[in-house]
Amino acid sequence: MAEQPHTDVPIALELLVHGVGGTTPEQMLDDPRTVCLAGDTTAGIHRRACDTDAEAHPGRYREAPVPEAYCWSNLTSGNAGRALWLLLLPFMIANLAHWMRPPSTRTRLARWYEVAVRLLALSLTVLLVAAVCEVALDIVGWQCAGRAACTHDKSWLGFAAASRGGWWSQPGRRLALAAAAPLALTGVLWWLSHRTWYAYESQRPAVPSRPPAPGAPSLAQPGFWYGRRSVARLRTAHTAVGLLTIAAALLTPALGHDRGRPGAVLPAIGWSLAGVLVVLVAIAIGVTVRAHRVETGLDDTADPRTTRLLLAGSGTLLAAAVLYGGWSRPGWHSAGRLPSAQAFSALTITQGVLVALLAGTAAALHRARPAEFEDTAPALRGQAGPAVALLGCAIGGVLTGGIAERAADLLDRGRTPGQSGSPLAGPPAVLTWESSVIPAVLVLVLLAGAWLALRLRHEERELCPEVDALYPGEVHHRSRTRHIASALARAGLTDRAPLLVAVLCGTAFVLGGGAVAAAWIGGGTPGEEARGAPGPVTALADTAQSLGSWLVGAGVIALVAVGRRAYKDASARRTVGILWDIGTFWPRAAHPFAPPCYAERAVPDLTWRMATWTQATGGRIVLSGHSQGSVLSAAAVWQLDPQVRGRVALLTYGCPLARLYGRWFPAHFAPARLRELHEEMHAWCNLWRRTDPIGGPVGIGGKGVAGVAGDAGIGGPPVDVGPLLDPAAYGRSAAHPLPEPVLGHSDFQADPAFARTRAGLLARLGYPVPAVPAQGRPAGLPDPLV
């Protein structure tokens, strides 16, 4: 006899969303037999094989929701090749600075903040391409190929050696050939940005039946996760600026040679090309300034004609620069360095000015924050964006100087470029100074690590009495207590991240400014500047210069090795994926060559699934998100129509919404924004532990469970459930015959509080559930949601 449908009780769905590092559908559903209902190998909806037709038999699921897993791990750590994106870390950091803007009602000032970040990101593209030009054009094509002492043992460079008098021996032709390296890099960056956008970010989100209310947060806007137009315009501008940087590197030495020479044709051509270059650079800057995001709708408008012609004009100018620079000039000989030192110094100063402008704008925005954001405690008092942007510039400058110095060292066969006995002049002095400060930064990091270790030991001793008080009636042992106290102390390190970032950024600013000043005032490298100094000073300068070169070379090799290992080792892929997950949640609003945003695929996936499932079944959903999955879940709920949102309950655990995102991205996840989401949600509960280094309480709602303070101005049940006791038992007992581990950020579903909290959420949704037995409840935790 066929099963009769039960129309009185709607079916319920528990949609599980995993966190950082990823997992398999089999692990999420605790069943080896799973099927993919929707999606693909990159991201998909999975169920147990026995639950595939659950909607046709609602009577079977009267006492428990249908478990369903959204697995998005392959959006981040699935493809091992994405590990190589770590080499573009400064681009990702600059993109994060865009989203760290303080909340404010001054929209024009906020627009200027975003413009400053986009211009800073554009300067990082120039820096990367200029760094490759410095290595390929200056050190290899100009210096090494122009000196017989450098090319005599390098057969791969013999065809271009000036001493052999071949067709490629003229400096202009050598430079034109060497320009293939930065041109290939620019092409690869454009291709990666274009391909990954179509693979991840081109997913159209669900269009709401009615627009959000005026003043709704950005995360609730329909176009927030659809940045097609802005990313396309930024990609065009950055690619054009990369091509123009190469053209400038070719035009400058050729034009410098032609000035004052007999004949007026070549100088006229060179100056004309330089004028066109200036115009195209101005157009690219204008395109970058106007490439703002449109979040109130799905922006599919075509790019203006100026933007479409910019890339073609830049490519044409580069081809003309290659022809102009490669024109035969028999009397031209390469000597010294290319005139690039002023360019790198000017670029560093420009970045410093932009960071200062960004800091001033952020301070004004923070002072003008709305009244509802008064309880917001942003990281670094609203200066997180400028600090992170400065950190990205510092990393880019250090990598540029270190790579240039390492390339010169490798070509010089162990000698020190720029010193007597070396055929190479080496990179510009400013880059050498920047690579020389790397040991100082490393010493600072080691000192900060030592200070943190001492603080941890001190806090561990102070927490021991508190740990013993959590487990009354137990026979306490010093080693067990210290182990638990150590976990609590380590979990608190996350809250000290702003201080460490401030120290690193301040040091980077001082050392970077000192490097530029030393290069401009002294004009020489650290080793050259110390030649007249006493022996220990000279040795220290030489050691800093060489050590900085080796450290950067080792760092780049280590990143590449991680990427290569990730092709073969799944565990390495997961490790790299953690960094990827944290840095690529946000759309590419500032830098189009940053790693792609996985949330522009994941959030529409979740929104479409919840909207279509509730419409088809009339059922209720418990959206269960762990760690980064809780951030994706909250972002997806913000995108739902109000009638769909009323059928959804949110269950978060290991949740970094308030602890990390609320502090570093206050305009989007400040307590005021989370309160708005709480008021619009039918039900929301958040489980947390003190031993968790990532997640924490949300801090909104009524008085929290177990004494967790919430917002007294908001009524209703509390959001936070916790802190959950971790470990669940201090020592061995009949209920726990083996020692219980400190779980920290993992295994929340194994805690009895998880099942009770989920049952309470289902009850709020109008779904009857059986009473949850009290056995196994951690000591000190009352029943939530009663």
From TrEMBL:
Stretches that traverse the bilayer: 83-100, 112-132, 175-192, 237-256, 268-289, 309-327, 343-365, 386-404, 436-454, 499-523, 543-563
Claim: Membrane is one of the keywords in the record: yes
Organism: Actinacidiphila guanduensis
Keywords: Membrane, Transmembrane, Transmembrane helix
Protein's UniProt keywords contain Ion transport: no
InterPro entries from the UniProt entry: AB_hydrolase_fold
Positions in coiled-coil regions: none
Protein name: Integral membrane protein
Source organism superkingdom: Bacteria
